[in-house]
Amino acid sequence: MNVVITPAMVGQVVVSGLLAGALYSMVALGLALIFGVMRVINVAHGTLLTMGAYTTFWWFRLLGVNPYLSLLVSMPVMFVVGIGLQRAMVRRVVNAPELSSLLLTFGISIALVNGLQLAFTSDLRTVEFLTGAFVVGGVALSKSRLVAFGFALVITLGAYWFLQATRFGKAIRATSQSPMVAMVCGVNVERVHLYTFGIASALAAAGGSLVAIMFAIQPEMGQVYTFKSFLVIVLGGAGNYPGALLGGMLLGLIEQLSSLFLTTQLSEAVAYVLLVLVLLVRPTGLLGGRAT
Amino acid sequence: MRGLVVAGLAVALVLLVLYPMVASGYEIRFMLQLFMWVALAQSWNLISGLTGYVSFGHVAFFGTGAYATGILITTHGWHWAAASVAGGLAAAILALIIGYPCLRLKGPYFAIAMLGLNEVMRVLVSYFEGLTGGGMGLSLPTLYASVQIYYAMAIAALAVTGAAYLIVTSRFGLRLMTIREDEIAAAAMGIDTARHKLYAFLLSAFVPGVVGGLFARDQGYIEPIAVFPLAFTITMIVMALFGGKGTVWGPALGAATLFVLQELVWVRFLFLHQVLFGAIIILVVLFMPRGVLGVLQQRYRLPRYV
Amino acid sequence: MTRLARTALVLVGLGAAGALIAASALAQGPVKIGASLSLTGTYAALGQNQQRGYQLCAKHVNEKGGVLGRKIEFVFYDDQSQPATGVRLYERLITQDKVDLVMGPYSSAITEAVANVNEKYKMPMVAPMASTTAIFKKGRKYIYMVQSPAEVYLEGLIDVAAKKGLKTVAIINEDTLFPKATVQGTIELAKKKGLQVVFVEGYPKGHTDFSAILTKVRAANPDVLGAATYFDDAVAITRQMKELNVSPKMYGVTVGGDLPTFYQLLGRHAEFVYGATQWEPELPYPGAKEFVVSYSLEFPGRDLSYHSAGGYAGCQILVEAIRRAGSLDGEKIRDAILKLDFKTVYGGFNVDQDGFQVSHKMVTFQWQEGKKVIVWPDELAAGKALFPTPPWSQR
């Protein structure tokens, strides 16, 4: 009882995959930064995204102003929240075994998610702003996803520029290559950690704001994005920042194509199977970061 | 001292045997699930506490055992005890297949691969619905066997604790802990690290398989999302960590303490208990990363077999 | 602390204890009814709706003097949307808290697991939010169904489609117990009505991006699309249908489409969408109007859905059965429930010897100008279906 797959359908899902992929790249870049700089796997990353999404929701609900402008609020707010988390808690587990950071951030995530649930209830919320699609040659281009794609691309490229061109970006890259050497060279590693967590949280928040305009949101939505970000950074090569861009696009395509050619049910497994295969062949990811 | 401990354990054992004769249905089920958590936390400890390889998807073995057992009972009419052992074997086979390649991965990569394993298992179980009932779940024939399953769970919990004791006090255990401290050095010392890790992994997968089988029989109904939840993995890790990972009694202590706490305190806070759970995790990691027994060990120089 | 103070404290304590004993000897305490519900986790929103139904029913029953001369009182726990926790909590309610009776949890999956517990203790359980037939066809004697089975959720959609002369239907569903049962039932119904099922595919729980599955639906080009959903996915699918320009002549969802928030969230995009529901506030069932009014007074601003009404009705049924049985004895209540044939705020209640519901009726509605207009079955219909659903560009 299945349908015959036509080239037009493949075109449609490739477009959907790339549109989603840019968003994955942006969100995963945040996770990759934290992992690269601190060797911390931040399980609460998706929860920070959720908080960004709620910021946009309330912005739109209370002010009724263009929700894309809420990025100007959600990103700085979550930047500060991220710095707070780093300063109060995550800082203490940076040099501990990975189990500590996994669990700590998981604890933070549970507490925050349920806090959100208490504050805002678990009711589903949407931001009805930009709906519908442009139809180009049989391929429907969702307006909100197209805009999200644009934002994600600009923000991600901006972050790369920041990493490549600014002094502080260089300090971040230096720290992720070798904290010791960076410290010897006069980099304030502690400060790099602090701002890295802030930047990563802001990237997650940007993702959340864009997601809020595309999909309905609820307190538990974030975990999916945490998992996807894991996939992205491992596929792309953890600690390798351009790898996150590649990994995100790749994940978007894998998800969409596998649910087209197989079933939606199986598509969730395909990405993970690929992940394990990639790890086995190249334990440091496709673009390969430094070995741990 | 040692005699005293043995005598104490014997008394506790007798009490546990007699317990179902005086306990109410709820109390039996409570202890049954407590034993389940003891067994799960202990199993996790065998691989992750001893070798340092953090399994972030240990519930995959639990779910695999649950489904293997459920299928053997419903479609092949097996007795639940035999089916649960088979569930353990199924989990061990899974561990063999994925452990061989995955145990080469280091640190966070191993953790994420294990997380992926759990997702994959859940999806596969949902997909092959002819065998597993898929998303409809698997409904076992009705059977009231709480007391027997109580004993079976108790045996599983004791067996894995006993195994932990034997391992920690053996050369095998010492080698595992050497791997945890420095794998390259361990290999340089002539330890066959791959084989040691694999053995520990198999053992730590077998028991959750059995326990998953008993759980399936006790529940009477299983579905993919109920036997492959990430929350189970997290709970067993937190329990082991709270009691003291890498110790013999730590995971058991952690499981018992947290489970009792949950039952006594958290059901009173209908909406707040999850926030409290998150807070407890944070506090344990930040202030007691070695767990209760770890702290005691440091302070009082307890023997290794504690 | 001085000696005097200590003595005084002891005396006060003794006095309080004595008063408590005396009080409990004088008056019989309330009838305790236990229930664990999904107050957190994936089913939280719906489980909380059901809980409000229980609470309101208890309030109303007590205002009218209770039952058997005693008040009723609910003991609630949270099962975190997990069957294993539910099982333990019902065991606790029955053997530890010694509640007199229990009421069902939320969702088919959790009810399926919990049903073994109350069965063991021969304690009758009215299960208002379980609609999967299999639960009631396993030879259990102490569980009773309140609503129509999952299998007939899309009956109205299929029936209307057949009458309009449509030929093909596609079905997508969340891959869990309840929606899957709906799919099975719908395939049967479609065959019976002469419709051809051209596409069926499930998606995992928690799925948010439906691009690929909807692309396949678009390619299959069905006249009718039925989605066996919970709430989140119903919203997401409807939004993404517009984005992908999927526009069948009829499109209906199961759970979630009936919630007022469905329209609030989707706005105009919800227009023309068909939904199936166990209950609607305007259906002319006895007491329904009063229920709706007092619900909005008691829980201002909270969703009123069939889960609340079902919870309320389940509790009504239990109380009525206690009244007729004249005691809290499980066997007598069971007999009374099996003989019951009456209408609650939720519609008809009458179960066969297995406890399977045979009297309750589903309705199918369509969103028209922000209102749910019941279009099926004919005897309850308040309006006509707007057919066919126009393409997205003309809505």
Account of the protein in words:
The complex is a heterotrimer of chains A (292), B (306) and C (395). Chain A is mainly alpha-helical and 292 residues long. Chain A has a domain at 25-220. Helix content of chain A is 73%, strand content 3%. In chain A, strands 1-2 form a two-stranded antiparallel ribbon. Chain B is globular. The mean pLDDT of chain B is 90. In chain B, strands 1-2 form a two-stranded antiparallel ribbon. Chain C is α/β, with parallel strands linked by helices and 395 residues long. Chain C is 43% helix and 17% strand. Chain C has a seven-stranded mixed sheet with strand order 7-6-8-9-10-13-14, sandwiched between helices. Classes of the chains: A mainly alpha (292), B mainly alpha (306), C alpha/beta (395). Chain A binds chain B through residues 35, 39, 41, 89, 92-93, 96-100, 102-104, 106-115, 117-118, 223, 227, 230, 234, 238, 263, 265-266, 268-269, 272-273, 275-276, 279-280, 283, 292, and chain B through 48, 52, 54, 56, 98, 101-102, 104-109, 111-113, 115-117, 119-120, 123-124, 126-127, 230, 234, 237-238, 241, 245, 271-272, 274-275, 277-282, 284-286, 289.
Helicity level of chain C: 40-55%
- Name the CATH superfamily classification of the largest domain in chain C: Response regulator
Distance between the termini of chain A: 48 Å
Given the helix and strand composition of chain A, which structural class is it? mainly alpha
CATH topology of the largest domain in chain C: Rossmann fold
**Integer average pLDDT of chain A:** 89
Sheet-strand content of chain A, in percent, reads under 5%
Give the class-level CATH name of the largest domain in chain C: Alpha Beta
Please write out the topology.
The complex is a heterotrimer of chains A (292), B (306) and C (395).
Chain A: H1 7-38, H2 45-63, H3 71-88, H4 98-120, E1 133-136, E2 139-142, H5 143-165, H6 167-177, H7 179-184, H8 189-214, H9 222-236, H10 241-261, H11 264-281
Antiparallel strand pairs in A: 1-2
Helix pairs in contact in A: 1-5, 1-6, 1-8, 1-9, 1-10, 2-3, 2-4, 2-8, 2-9, 3-8, 5-6, 5-8, 6-8, 9-10, 10-11
Chain B: H1 2-22, H2 25-51, H3 59-76, H4 80-102, H5 107-127, H6 129-132, E1 138-139, H7 146-168, H8 171-181, H9 183-188, H10 193-219, E2 221-222, H11 224-227, H12 230-243, H13 250-264, H14 273-287, H15 291-300
Antiparallel strand pairs in B: 1-2
Helix pairs in contact in B: 2-7, 2-10, 2-12, 2-13, 3-4, 3-5, 3-10, 4-10, 7-10, 8-10, 12-13, 12-15
Chain C: H1 3-26, E1 31-37, H2 44-63, E2 72-78, H3 83-95, E3 101-103, H4 108-120, E4 125-127, H5 133-136, E5 143-145, H6 155-163, E6 168-174, H7 177-192, E7 196-203, H8 211-220, E8 224-228, H9 231-243, E9 250-253, H10 260-266, E10 274-277, H11 288-298, H12 306-325, H13 330-339, E11 342-344, E12 347-349, E13 363-368, E14 371-376
Helix pairs in contact in C: 2-12, 3-4, 6-7, 12-13
